Amino acid sequence: MNNFLNIKKIITLLSLSYLIMTSVNGTTVNCSGGECNFNNSIHYHYAKTYCMENLNFEKVETDFQYFTISKTGKRCDVHDSVDSK
Length: 85
Fold this sequence. Notes:
By secondary structure, this protein is an alpha+beta fold. It has one helix and six strands; from the N terminus they run H-E-E-E-E-E-E. A six-stranded antiparallel β-barrel has the order 1-2-3-6-5-4.
């Protein structure tokens, strides 16, 4: 019974740590002239897009084929990328 409680505590602690780290370290992007560098992205490290906004440490949500700028909701399709490692 004691081992079960210890495992439950560890799983709870790991889950909370994951939630805190993902909300604190959201994906940000720096773009200029359609070339973008991503920070903390699971999908991209570098990408080219047809969106021509200049973005500086802007929060985004990434997907396999596009990213969405959180502040404006604009979707930018990616046509060339280097995956994150």
